[in-house]
Amino acid sequence: MEISYKWLQDYIELPESPEEVGKLLTGTGLEVEGVEKIEAVPGGLEGIVIGEVLTCIPHPDADKLSLTTVDAGTGQPLSIVCGAPNVAAGQKVVVALVGATLHPTAGEPFQIKKAKIRGAASEGMICAEDEIGLGTSHAGIMVLTTDLPNGTPAARYFNLEADYQIAIGLTPNRIDAASHFGTARDLKAVLKRPLTMPSVDAFSVNNHDLTIDVRVDDEAACPRYTGLTISGLTVNESPDWLKKRLLSIGLNPINNVVDVTNFVCHDLGQPLHAFDAEKIAGKQVIVKTLPEGTSFVTLDGVERTLSATDLMICDAEKPMCIAGVFGGQNSGVTVQTTSIFLESAYFSPTSVRKTAQYHSLKTDASFRFERGTDPNMPIFALKRAALLIQEVAGGTISSEITDLYPEPIQPFRVLVRYKNIDRLIGIKIDRTDIHRILSALDIEADEITADSFIAVVPPYRVDVTREADVIEEILRIYGLDNVPLSVHLAADSLSEFPKVDPNQWQSRVGQLLAANGFYEILTLSLTRPAYNDAIRATLPGADVTLLNPLSEELSVMRQTLLFSALETLVYNLNRRQKDLKTFEFGKIYHKTQPEDGASNYHERARLSLAMIGNQMAESWLAKGQPVAFHDLATSVQRVLNIFRIKQFDTQPSDPVLFQYGLTYLVNKKPLVSLGLVNPKLTKLVDLKQPVFYADFDWNALLKLANTKIRYEEVPRFPEVRRDLSLVLDKNVPFEQISRLAHQTERKLLRAITVFDTYEGENLGADKKSYSVSFTLQDPTQTLTDTAIDKTMQRLMSGFERELGAVIRK
């Protein structure tokens, strides 16, 4: 959601900078994601001032140029060569000073520099409107009528002061803040300043020449419906102030009537809709549902098939609008419109949400209605919009206000106990401050006693319905930073904590991976059904399908993190990020159905790693080296080392998922699978490069976590290295060699590594050679040649006997 800083100032005095306002809003729970400067014209006319032409004579060496001296407020008159035919002494003009960058209406920006033009010095530029981006005319320089002193910034004269767009990451529960008025309410509470509400006192009914009968057939879906008519208006382009307001929050102006409805929606949080009154058959507006399958063409020209639950705004003959969601193509305001019916309503959030999802329509109106607007706002917003339409489009209000509100929505009444306020916040807040904060948030206190009170919460605060919610309101305005930490909090104990803390282990693994060049990703748990279908043979159960999905593309819960990683890689590759290493902590979901027919739902935590491109970026030191299986295996081993998992069995990975790879097993249960992703799966996301991927069972890892640390004295005696070259069957993995070596020599063998492999015709068919180093050490004495030879002989005998190895000598 975008909020204009200058627009906010219409409601509340804000001497604070936009950045300071952003911090205040974040502190109240309206997280500000960014503050961006919005300039009315490119460059904001920086370095451009109002000046006065003191003298003007023809250039001696050019017929079409003039030599001028200009007072631009710099202390000394500037000499400027001007080519405009209308320049004359005594004029107030727009002057670009040396160093200013001009952004013309057409062409590239350019900077003003000191220059000599036909031998005459020029220290600036007297500007035409197209040269500074204010118009298209180049007939001559701009001649101003103003008493502003020379040197005044031109932006001030043209009222082009920069605005700031404040981007708020609005959470679904805070729809009350989805407007400038709603945002200002939070600032009012935290800054203890009054709000200045727009006045609607000038509202009056001019005549009764255009009456529209209104009927609501579905009061559950439309608890309140209000409207009035305006006739004799002229649909045209909006005035500059209105266009600037909409542009400041990223909206494009359309026409003066539609722009007013959009303005009021973002001003007060109340969506409105204007119907061309001449197109309302029978002068009737009926709020009702229509039969299943009814066809309706919306404003975007798309023909839609209605559901039987879609609430519609109809006239005596046809539907005109999907209530609270989208208008119809044949009832909207056009340049031919001279009279309108202006609607301001409160629609059931459930009804609007179902309809918006059914038609995959997301509009500013549905965004607000489906979360819950203020049922007490429609009349005020209607009057505000009617007055603004009269101001920008003319016309007269030609009917009384229709207000159908049979069962007014009552405030929430919540019992709040002071002891619970103190307990949940952690400190005792003065009772006066509590009630001041609640009053500033429009929450009244009733039935106040020494121990409790009833909080009367206005219905627009749909998220404040419980005691904890009221306490949260107190805390967010009081300020989390104002709650001191207890003096008893400490973390200086050396006690052992054998219980595994998943968050700590996740943090440790995340830091390890980040330190090794991996980037963490966070993706949706919702995914495409096609992804699960592609690996159906490997899945443990059926998909968990959403009852009310946002779209067909996101209608099931994922059963693997693989496709989330692949989509992230594609997104980055499309933005020329070629060398990528990512990891993600996430959950996967499935369901099983026992014989009794009831579904059992399961979720498991996973950790995924993905690698693509080069292991290291290309440089003058070395060429780029593509990632390989062993790069991924090294990262997997680093993760296992944190958990002190040294011993595991291996088997080939599932060919549905991997073109080749391994699965590590502990106690005969899979712990991690890694390898090259099957190209059939990468093709689903239009990814053509090889991807190496690892999938950890995070729950299993946590169960194997070893929290005990064993310390040993640093050995005083040296290590000894011996190398062997083993010729083995090609299908014998190195892990099998390592395990056999450690089983054969438990006392002296410290490490075993492979430093070379070889395959060739001279070895024989299906044979492979491993060059292996063995590190031997005795912590109690220096090893003798005799002891070393005996150890190596046992190892060679074991390899020959158990693995059929041929020792190359």
Detailed description of the structure:
33% of the residues are buried. This protein is of the alpha+beta class and 809 residues long. The chain contains 20 helices and 43 strands. It has a seven-stranded mixed sheet. Strands 3, 4, 5, 6, 11 and 12 form a six-stranded antiparallel sheet that branches. A five-stranded mixed sheet has the order 14-17-20-21-22. The protein starts with a strand and ends with a strand. The model has no long low-confidence stretch (mean pLDDT 90). The chain is globular. Helix 6 (256-268) packs antiparallel against helix 9, helix 10 (418-425) packs across helix 12 and helix 13 runs antiparallel to helix 16 (629-642). The chain has six domains: 2-39 and 162-191, 2-Layer Sandwich (Phenylalanyl-tRNA Synthetase, Chain B, domain 1); 42-157, OB fold (Dihydrolipoamide Acetyltransferase, E2P), CATH 2.40.50.140; 213-404, 3-Layer(bba) Sandwich (Phenylalanyl-tRNA Synthetase, Chain B, domain 3), CATH 3.50.40.10; 412-478, Phenylalanyl-tRNA Synthetase, Chain B, domain 1; 502-704, BirA Bifunctional Protein, domain 2; 720-808, Ferrodoxin-fold anticodon-binding domain (Alpha-Beta Plaits, 2-Layer Sandwich).
